[in-house]
Structure formats: C-alpha cells, structure tokens
Amino acid sequence: MSEIVGSHDLLLITLDTLRYDVAAELAAAGRIPHLARHLPGGIWEKRHAPGSFTYASHQAIFAGFLPTPAAPGPHPRLFAARFAGSETTASRTFVFDTPDLVSALAGAGYRTVCIGGVGFFNRQGPLGSVLPGMFQESHWEPEFGVASPTSFEAQVARAEQVVAGLPAEQRLFLFVNVSALHQPNWFHQPGATRESGDSRATHAAALEYVDAHIGRLLAAASSRRRCFAIVCSDHGTAYGDDGYTGHRLGHEAVWTVPYAHFFLQPGATAR
Description:
Layout: E1 9-15, H1 20-28, H2 33-36, E2 45-48, H3 54-62, E3 68-69, E4 79-81, E5 94-96, H4 101-107, E6 110-115, H5 127-130, E7 137-139, H6 151-164, E8 171-178, H7 200-221, E9 227-232, E10 238-241, E11 244-246, H8 252-255, E12 256-264
Parallel strand pairs: 1-8, 1-9, 4-5, 6-7, 6-8
Antiparallel strand pairs: 2-3, 2-12, 9-12, 10-11
Helix pairs in contact: 6-7
C-alpha cells in the first residue's frame, strides 16, 4: 500500500451487515457472478469484524483497522497510524500521521468522497454527521437508505456522477456504505411480504440485488486509472441464530465477515 497510495485511485465498499456464511454460499452457488469474478480464487476471505455495529466498525476501519483475517496472527495491515510498538505495521503498510486514514489520504492529494447508506451517514443529526464529516465531500439522501428498494442503484448513479465531475488528474478515494443488506430487506425477495419480515433468505436476495448493479460502480471507480478496491462487510447480523436477532451483540454471525481486495484495471467493464 505504501506504493499504491498516490499512484492509484482507491475504492472502499462496505456491504453493511453482510454475513460471511451467506456471502460464501452465494459465491459458491454462482449467485453473485459479478462480485465473484473479482474475488481472489472466486471466494471470500473469512475475517473478523473490528466492531459489532456500523458506527464502531467504521470508526475502526477509518483508523486503518480493516477486518482481521480469521486465523492466528499477527497480520500486517494495509493502513496504519504511526504509533510505537505496533505489531501489525509492516514495511509495505501505508503509515500515516493523522488521526484517521481519510484525512491522511486527503493530505496525500486525494479527493475523499463518501456515499452514505445507513443512518450513521445521513447527516440528520450530530451522530449521523461524525463519519461523513471525515470526508471532503459526502452524499446521502433517503433513496440511499435502508428503506429504499432501489438504494444501491441510486448510490451507484451518484458515484458515477461524482467520478464524471472530477478532473482527470485528481486522485480519488471513494467510500460507499451499501445499505441494501441491512434490515428491512424483505422486499428484495420476489413474493416476500412485509408481514413475512426479514430472514436469512431475504438477506441473500439483497446481496444478489447488489451484485446485479455493482459492475457499474467498479467500472466508474476504474474509469480513469488503475484502482485498488476493498470490498467487505463491517459486521454481520443474526436472524434467529441461537435465539439472537440483529447485531451489536457478540455472536459468530455478527463477528464473522467476508472480505476481499483486488485491483481494477482501467476501463473495467460494467458487467
């Protein structure tokens, strides 16, 4: 990353609440072909989330603490704030001297852009302004939120507008928090009703919906130069697992998340 920062555009996508087991099953079954074509070996990496809900996890991610490989470490990090005694800062780590990665990238000449999804990015109060406030430019509207059946399409369209408006020489750090996986997600499964509610199956259907449109986002992010992309979940969520529902709790379904990083070549197709 110490060589990538400054030469590449950067894309970070958090698939909010996406469970590892659902993501892995859909990749193996060929149900998310557009994502799977970019996953190393066609599979997700199993990792542990840095937090059990959106706010905590993103505070950690923006400080350089991406989800940790689900195996004994230490594991060198891509990004790290400079501090004495760090056991996960390696020679190839991008080390920064600011409080967070976003401001560090801005200092390195990047245009930092947030396209929010869930309520912690809606700027409708002090708490919802903290995370998007880290960025030079942030976007949120109700159509991007959890209650919109077309949230991801709207987010992708905004990302395309953002990229199209940048000068060719301007480096970009684009962050997209995808809200479609988050409850409510019943409307992504054909035939489902509000009364039937959300389930592991509707969660999976929401990931299929995201996959159908993610090619446009990846194409936009790589339309000007080679792009380094990170796609991961910030935490999972429970659908009755061992009696648990939701997140902000310490269950395997919440702590275990899918992760991938890969390069996008300039002019990547939108499919």
